[in-house]
């Protein structure tokens, strides 16, 4: 069967395309311009006709996906802005919301063969920030970021502009399904991953062109952008991009997943954990990496993780029961960065 993957040239999406092709699916990816198809065609050339790329220039335009959805059995919608240069919050919110609703609308109108739509949301749509340790479940929603953006507009924190865009986009997807439940022939699955790390396979000629999450990993672990105190105190939760791609495949395969959102997370981290993992690799892939205070991350007795997730639902329903470790992820990232000359 055939799967449409939007934003196929992105960090996560390229891995989603790869895993789907490896599992025998045919894949149609969308990109914003013809030049962004070149690298994908190259890395997936062995799949011949089973891999195609189409151009959807502006995902915010009405009917943008009308052609792309025709004849596919499932859709993985990943395209959405995630960067840190945003002035007006609408720069994030408009493509996030209109892109999501647009895909669903096109599927309603022209996706007679579509059975399942998976939307890549984020833990950004789940978490709320506080100074207490919290464990979030699929019942939690980040209304805090929406409120901050409503109140502060351009002066809101850039991460909260992003979080608001993801929360609003996911809510608009569930609203669409609720409003159109009498006439749609497909169901919706939403994936909510935290920070995504791991090697890249999309087109990244230079390190500064890495996507937001991989760039922070690179800057922190290889370039030493955080001091020892930041390394031991700063963190979040994370998942390896290869596990997330697998989750995207499971999300279209598991019948029982329909109508659900799933938090998928490998666990909480402090940046020092990845620094220690990087420094324990022998033989070293990079020499003179930043060291911070070894052992002062998650392993330290006084460590508190503020943001934790209950991933039991993804284990139960998607069957996602094993996550790539910090050590495996770090080694794969450093080997990848090194091979690219970063
Ligand atoms: P990338 O920046 O690598 O990929 C983003 C993709 O979305 C690209 O194909 C990009 O196209 C497309 N896109 C961005 N803005 C627009 C726009 N305005 N109009 C049309 N297309 C657009 O990011 P990731 O792979 O990291 O992110 C993919 C998805 O995963 C996003 O929905 C993101 O919110 C979500 N996510 C990411 C996490 C992470 O840590 N990386 C964590 C949780 C969720 P182009 O190349 O043309 O700009």
For the largest sheet, list the strands in their spatial order. Answer: 3-2-1-4-5-7-10
Our count of helices gives: 11
| Biggest beta sheet attributes | 7 strands, parallel
How far is it from the N-terminal to the C-terminal residue, by CA?
A: 38 Å
Strand content: 15-25%
What is the assigned CATH homologous superfamily? NAD(P)-binding Rossmann-like Domain
Order of helices and strands: EHEHEEHEEHHEEHHEHEEHEHH
Examine the secondary-structure arrangement and name the CATH architecture.
3-Layer(aba) Sandwich
Quaternary status of these chains?
single chain
Radius of gyration: 20 Å
Briefly, what CATH class?
Alpha Beta
Low-confidence stretches: none
Which geometry do the CA atoms define?
Answer: globular
Bound ligands: NADPH dihydro-nicotinamide-adenine-dinucleotide phosphate
* Domains, number: 1
Describe the protein:
The protein has 342 residues and is an alpha/beta fold. The chain has a single domain (2-339), classed as 3-Layer(aba) Sandwich (Rossmann fold). Helices cover 38% and strands 16% of the residues. It has 11 helices and 12 strands. It has helices at residues 11-22, 38-43, 90-110, 143-152, 158-179, 212-221, 228-233, 241-253, 271-279, 312-318, 326-339; strands at 2-6, 26-31, 51-55, 74-77, 116-120, 134-136, 187-192, 195-197, 235-240, 260-263, 267-270, 307-309. Strand 4, helix 3 (90-110) and strand 5 (116-120) form a beta-alpha-beta unit. The two termini are 38 Å apart. The site of NADPH dihydro-nicotinamide-adenine-dinucleotide phosphate has 23 residues, from helix 1 and strand 8.
């Amino acid at each position: 069967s055939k799967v449409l993957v939007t934003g196929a040239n992105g960090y996560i999406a390229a891995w989603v395309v790869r895993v789907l092709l490896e599992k025998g699916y045919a894949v149609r990816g969308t990109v914003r311009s013809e030049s962004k198809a070149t690298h994908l065609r190259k890395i997936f050339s062995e799949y011949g006709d089973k891999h195609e790329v189409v151009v959807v220039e502006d995902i915010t335009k009405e009917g943008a996906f009308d052609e792309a959805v025709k004849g596919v059995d499932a859709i993985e919608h990943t395209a959405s802005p995630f960067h840190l240069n945003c002035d007006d919050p609408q720069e994030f919110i408009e493509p996030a919301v209109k892109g999501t609703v647009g895909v669903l609308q096109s599927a309603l109108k022209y996706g007679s063969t579509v059975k399942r739509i998976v939307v890549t949301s984020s833990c950004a749509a789940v978490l709320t920030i506080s100074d207490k340790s919290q464990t979030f479940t699929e019942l939690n929603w980040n209304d805090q970021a929406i409120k901050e953006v409503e109140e502060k507009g351009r002066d809101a924190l850039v991460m909260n502009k992003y979080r608001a865009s993801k929360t609003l986009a996911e809510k608009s997807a569930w609203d669409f399904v609720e409003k159109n439940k009498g006439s749609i022939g497909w169901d919706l699955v939403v994936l909510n991953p935290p920070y995504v790390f791991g090697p890249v396979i999309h087109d990244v000629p230079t390190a500064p062109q890495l996507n937001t999450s991989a760039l922070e990993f690179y800057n922190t672990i290889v370039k030493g952008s955080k001091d020892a105190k930041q390394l031991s105190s700063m963190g979040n939760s994370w998942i390896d991009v290869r596990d997330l791609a697998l989750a995207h495949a499971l999300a279209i395969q598991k019948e029982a997943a329909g109508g659900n959102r799933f938090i998928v997370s490998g666990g909480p981290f402090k940046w020092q954990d990845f620094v220690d993992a990087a420094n324990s690799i022998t033989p070293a892939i990079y020499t003179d990496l930043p060291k911070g205070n070894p052992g002062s991350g998650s392993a330290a007795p006084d460590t508190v993780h503020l943001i934790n997730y209950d991933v039991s639902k993804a284990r139960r329903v998607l069957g996602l029961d094993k996550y790539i470790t910090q050590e495996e992820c770090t080694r794969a990232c450093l080997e990848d960065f090194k091979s690219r000359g970063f």
